[in-house]
């Protein structure tokens, strides 16, 4: 083979190898060319839904394409998440999830997807305090009173579904305080809160974003927040740690993920535009009254957090003998 022939062969071989990547690159460069679907696997009006709409509205404007939110509640977030796991990895289907994502393997050992293998984390929106609430009509004024009532009788607690962040926060509190209670799962937070307000369910550990309106209307009494420090949205409400229950805190994050295999340029663009949106004064102003705190992580760090939480949750379920129903 002459030098000229060899050079021509190498050129053709290189072109052949590059050809499959061309459609991939073209799709990434032209993205987004049509509306984007964002799956929120909890009901409308849930904490995750509220935060998603606050963040995605400016992201949509920045990208120049509508982002259509689809609410598919049920299964502690696993039903909607499973749908996204089967979606094409082209940047046109987003998953807006919360800490329920890393709790799913512990709560649902037979889920139809792998939270790590089937998804790539893009960016967290922040953390939201869970607040333990009871109906104002019950007359319970402190977390210690609630725990005492639980230890002297049978109480129920509502959540946004088995394995949801609201379920997990309640289990953390229950185990830390050493009481039993019957779990009553719902399709979303608003449904659970409606039952707590009515007194048909005794308490809930709900995201502040969902509970705040009921608290301000005097229908729910806030007893404690699950964060390490008090929430700016409820500065007079103690933390569960302050109330005297070590290891009762719970990190309720919310953020954006995509199906694994989504082109890196698209993921980077989503990260950049969402980061811009999170810095907007209008977004910060909407976050502040709800006690939403920043969680500044890069995509790889967000992925690592999810993997770490999965291991912690699996270990907790085993050590505490928690039974999910």
Structure description:
The protein is of the alpha/beta class and 325 residues long. Helices cover 45% and strands 18% of the residues. The strands form two sheets. It has a five-stranded mixed beta sheet with strand order 2-1-3-10-4, sandwiched between helices. It is globular. The termini are far apart. 48% of the residues are buried.
Short account of what is shown:
The chain is α/β, with parallel strands linked by helices and 325 residues long. Helices cover 45% and strands 18% of the residues.
Blueprint of the fold:
Blueprint (H helix, E strand, L loop, with lengths): L2 H16 L2 H10 L5 E5 L6 H17 L3 E5 L6 H8 L7 E6 L1 H8 L11 E9 L2 E6 L7 H10 L2 E5 L5 H13 L3 E5 L3 H10 L4 E5 H9 L3 E6 L27 E7 L4 H15 L2 H7 L11 H22 L5
Helix pairs in contact: 3-9, 3-10, 5-12
